Amino acid sequence: MPLIDVIYAQGSLNSEAQQKLTKNLWSTALRWEGIELNETSASVAWVYLDERPKHHVSVAGHPATQNIYRVNVRVMLGFMDQERIDNLAADLTSAILDADGTGGDGSGPRVFCIVEEIPSGAWSIDRKTWTTVFTAKALGLEPGRVEATEKAVAAHPRIDVPHKVQI
After folding, report:
1. Among residues 10, 13, 72, 118, which one has the fewest Cβ atoms lying within 10 Å of its Cβ?
2. The domain 3-119 is classified under which CATH number: 3.40.47.10, 3.30.450.40, 3.30.429.10, 3.40.50.300?
């Protein structure tokens, strides 16, 4: 259940490229999370395209000379390993550069991709907290994977510090 933000300077993507990205990015992320594409998983796979004024995007304090993009992908802890993260970042980068279509000017990197794993129980949708196990079940992961998720969470529970500590 990815939450994806793509930030870029105004005019970097035309409306056709934007539509292409909104159709592609969410399904790419779900695939690398190992989550089946269905109505339930699609309903919690959100993509935000955040176009900023050109003068709000810079490199080392100077106006960008080519289209650059920042991608923040939030996924729930327990659905990714390093190989999945590497492939997710590579595929999202490819999708963005393909939609951009300019080829850049070779002056430096063009896509900064951050994959952030949100701890179990730190994700809420419509007032319902989604734990890793709840999510695995809600999204219909195969029983073996749900069981593995339950064991992993049991072995590595949250660290909760009481709000009020008695001294």
Report:
1. 10
2. 3.30.429.10
pLDDT tens, position by position, 90-116: 999 999 999 999 999 999 999 999 999
CA distance 104 to 2: 28
Q: What is the pLDDT of residue 162?
A: 80
Instruction: Give one DSSP letter per residue of 54-92, joined into a string.
Output: GGG-EETTEE-SS--EEEEEEEETTS--HHHHHHHHHHH
Report the alpha-carbon distance of residue 141 to residue 149 in Å, rounded: 10
Closest CA relative to residue 71, chosen from 157, 148, 6, 160: 6
User: Which pLDDT score, from 0 to 100, does residue 164 have?
Assistant: 81
pTM above 0.85, yes or no: yes
Q: Pinpoint the alpha helices (H) of the chain.
A: 15-33, 39-43, 82-100, 132-138, 143-155
Give residue for tokens 């529970």.
157
